[in-house]
UniProtKB/TrEMBL annotation:
Residues 71-189 form the Mannose-1-phosphate guanyltransferase C-terminal domain. Gene3D superfamilies: Hexapeptide repeat proteins (2.160.10.10). It holds the Pfam family GMPPB_C. Keywords: Acyltransferase, Transferase. GO terms for molecular function: acyltransferase activity; nucleotidyltransferase activity. This is Transferase hexapeptide (Six repeat-containing protein). It comes from the Bacteria. It comes from Anaeromicropila populeti.
């Protein structure tokens, strides 16, 4: 399962949250730790660069926050991030440097690495999005199974138990997700891969792949 390890999915130099990964191997081990990590990290952020704008909400002074955005802590909004009209940040969220959270996008218990774009009508919950990954308009993460059983990660012929009731998706660096796609609970997409629009994705998508539909995944050239 080497492909699923954090260091094969993410470039740790592109997130303020690098330390949360240090004592973990796989991304689903990180998701339950996000809230407490933010609470610990927030108090260490330098007042020259960040300001506390609400209860446990730390925002970089260079970030842009729309007046119509809603942010509930704990949350950290990184340098030069852009939180746009009617964005809804529900807590336990890290928005990386230069990231974009757009119109009517909802985030919950999520880490966005630097440069991530979730700009149009996205739902991202209990998820991790790697450096410069992008979710097309209307694409979402589904974070709870319909039968409410714990989420498993499908990898080759294996089903890996996460012991999490809620887990959305994990996107490696530079992943592109097409418009109106659904990433089912426990989806993991390797670096530099592309998901076709209108896709329903579950399990593991290898890095440097193009996902067209279930059973039709080809290598990027």
């Amino acid at each position: 399962m080497e492909e699923l390890r954090n260091y094969n999915l993410f470039s740790m130099e592109h997130t303020i949250a690098a330390r949360i990964f240090e004592d973990t191997t796989y991304p689903w081990e990180v998701i339950p730790k996000i809230k407490n990590f933010i609470l610990a990290l927030g108090g260490t952020l330098h007042y020259d660069e960040y300001e506390l704008i609400g209860e446990n909400i730390w925002v970089a002074k260079s970030a842009t926050i729309s007046k119509t955005a809603s942010i509930t802590g704990p949350a950290i909004i990184g340098k030069n991030a852009d939180i746009r009209h009617c964005a809804f940040i529900r807590g336990s969220v890290i928005v990386g440097n230069g990231a974009v959270v757009g119109n009517s996008t909802e985030l919950k218990n999520t880490i966005l690495f630097d440069g991530v774009q979730v700009p149009h009508y996205n739902y991202i919950g209990d998820s991790i999005l790697g450096y410069k990954s992008h979710m097309g308009a209307g694409s979402i993460t589904s974070n709870v199974k319909s039968d409410k059983s714990p989420v498993t990660v499908r990898f080759q012929e294996y089903k890996i138990e996460t012991r999490l009731k809620k887990m959305g998706a994990v996107l490696g660096d530079h992943v592109e997700v097409g418009c109106n796609s659904v990433l089912n609970p426990g989806t993991i997409i390797g670096k530099n891969s592309t998901i076709y629009p209108l896709s329903s994705v579950r399990g593991y998508v290898p890095e440097c792949s193009i996902y067209k539909k279930i059973g039709e995944v080809c290598e990027k050239k």
